Model the fold of this input.
Amino acid sequence: MQTGTKEPAEKSPPSNSTTANTSTIASAQLLEQARADPDTFLKELGSQLGGLSETEADSRLKQVGTNEIAREKRQSALMRLLGTVKNPLVLLLMALGVLSFLTGDLRATVVIFVMVVLGVVLRFFQEMRADNAAEKLQAMVSNTATLVRDGKEAEVSLKMLVPGDTVRLAAGDMVPADVRVLSAKDLFLNQVALTGEALPVEKKAAPSSPDVQNPLELPNICFLGSDVESGSATAVVIHTGNRTYFGSLAASLVGQRQLTSFDLGINKFTWLMIRFIAVMVPAVFLINGLSRRNWLEAFLFAMAVAVGLTPEMLPMIVTVNLSKGALAMARKKVIVKRLNAIQNFGAMDVLCTDKTGTLTQGKIVLEKHLDAQGDPSERVLQYGYLNSYHHTGLKNLLDEAILDHEELEERLKAKEKYRKIDEIPFDFVRRRMSVVVEDETGLNTLICKGAVSEVMSLCTRVEVKGESIEVLPEHDAKRRQLADDLNGQGFRVIALAYKQMPGGSDEPVYSVKDESDLILLGFLAFLDPPKDTAAEALKQLHSLSVDVKVLTGDNEIITAYICKEVGIPAEHLLLGSQIDAMNETELAVAANATSVFARLAPAHKERIIRALQSKGHVLGFMGDGINDAPALKAADVGISVNSAVDIAKESSDIILLENSLLVLQQGVLEGRRVFGNIVKYIKMAASSNFGNMFSVVGASAFLPFLPMLPIQVLTNNLLYDFSQTTIPTDEVDADWLTRPRQWTIGKIMRFILFIGPISSIFDYLTFFMMLYVFNCWHNPTLFRTGWFVESLFTQTLIIHVIRTNKIPFIQSRASWPLILTSLVIVAAGAWLTVSPLANTLGFVPLPPLYWLFLAIMLLGYAMLTQVVKTWFIRRFGE
Done:
């Protein structure tokens, strides 16, 4: 048994508030452990090459816990319902409903709670449906690892690993924890999910140089979340579970999300209405109470005014709009996990995106096949295909990229026209491999491919325009420069050479010594190329005034090349090492002026998101890797793809089921349509309600009776609300969709203050008409009926004026459902004055002359509102 070991870790995961600090400490520890010599490292960890004993492993397991990462727990139905109810406006409506019930106003109670239930239930079921459709964080792919315990190898459950365990890694294995390599043979890892770098990276056992500061670039550290592409290694576990690099990211994502731009906007509007209510309702209560000395009547009327001021339908209108948007996106194969993300999508003015898998295809592709002069060559492609097709060793990503050209198999008749004679396997000393094939004439051709310097050093001749000529030093330098230029553009370049030999009757055997006096044929250049849709999608986003920034963990050379290909300027890149030297203020300025960021760690991406948000931007982030998860959660709208790693999908708000960037443009437009209709409702309801209640305050001051009964106020409000239920079906003017739209509460408040009182002007004209034309000083029932009808008609008419920035009915017409509900509601309001319910509601029939005056006032109201609206847009903007 080993003694004197340190406790490797605490069992509980770090809280959200300390995750960043924990991550920084863990990074510093990794750097120290990577730089230490193996003996010192093992001593510090309390381990040895022969592995831990079972007793010691059990002890450590009790100390640090199992090797499992934190997961986002699925919300129960009850908790999701409570989260939906926990909204300032919903709580305000519920409070008003309870007060109405306590004062015996059952009609008001029913109306209010119907609105609350509709809004809450719609949102609850839509989000539950989206949650069920979205991918959840899955169990790790591999469930066992090869360990050395008590000096013997054994397959052990992945979750039972502890710091200090010795593990064996081989091709195809997933790295089971964060480990330090003690010995390695040709070890190459695929860690694209962590860094965004599509090409495999080599890991070695030697201590790391002090110059390496980014933990992900440490040459002797392998991270959970990567997998072994080729080679083998013996390594010792450093961190498990939430202490791993991957685990610390997952732990930081568990918990409450911060409020987004949309949430903050709704909350600000709610508090604006609460402030209006806090001023006007007490004023109405005091004026009526002091003037009539009936404090109960004054209280009931003030309660009705409070309800009248409150846009009860807002939760339902918002949810219906968002649900409609979610269904529209679902038809485009997009899962909306969080409804609010749709509006944030439309408000987004900056889209930050990862490179690998989002802008690029996320796989290595043979991009160029060039002859020795740099011209495209079909012969180079054919020889490269024959080499990759016939060699029997482990085919790497470059071989797979060549073999993707399946059309060559039939053309070359690889199995018939060319017969494999022998092969000289790849090794990491020669850095090349060769195959020998025999054609139909019996001619043997040795085809060699490998590292440029290694292959070219074996070439004494070069093929130029079909002729084999001697290699001249000056021409050889140009060919090496060609390869260097391709490397400088981010390509992985290998050289291809051959030589032909006569076949014999016996099966010849070839060896490394035969790789001599070769003829250089050309070069194969590989790249993770841009998606076909990337450039077009970025142009479309630009046309919608969405600025695109690239945030990647890949190196700056490849990043600059890809960005240039898709049309993003990359002259001024910002690197992770430069960001480390900046404070938050400096980063906000730099991030605002920079379009491309490279060599980023996950913390860098999150910092950039926060920095841009501090400048007032609404941020979208699109990514699919482990390293993208913190940024996805920090953004106002996180976007991922179905092929993304689970932690990225879990952190996202929107998941694209089809990996096409063109869907983004449709999502942005849909988000703007949704927000446009929500803003319509807010402007209509708030300005109209404010104008009516402003009229109530004035009327209460000089009338000897209540200007409208509480039941009439509530009925008016209910009818008006129902006239707006079809707003989600309405179209939004095309020019309104051309740029991002954000919450501007100050502008909404100004709109309410300017447009609302216009209705009060016509309300006071109605008062004058009812008092002096129809002599209602002693006929309060007729007065209330006249004002009820005028108020309902003007409110319903104003829907069509406010819904567009253009001239209503002429330049822009509402949807047919909205027109129909408007007509039905005004007809219902007129009918109530003569219906069997008239007596219950306190109505009487109106004289014919009233309807003539009403028509004149409606025309004047529409014209004046249109004039003020047009002036307001010119003065304050849309």
Remarks:
- Residues 423 and 620 are 51 Å apart (CA to CA).
- The two ends are 75 Å apart (CA to CA).
- The chain is about 50% helix and 15% strand.
- The first helix runs from residue 19 to 35.
